[in-house]
Amino acid sequence: MTTANDIIESGRSARLRPAGNAAVKPAQQPAGPFEVAAAKPSARDALVTGLLVIYPAFAAVAAILAGLFLAGASSV
Description:
76 residues, single chain, elongated, mainly alpha
């Protein structure tokens, strides 16, 4: 494994490009998911989205009711 001391002792220096040189070519394809064409929503997508929204709401109400029942305040 090469260490910093090995590089310093060998006398090698970093080779930098002059400022006038052209930069490296940019990639032809953009990075990330920004240019991906979205698929047309299906009924399955709507069902999953509905479950993701509705299920936590029902779970919260059920947890509150269970807490009231266990605390003995179900008659309120």
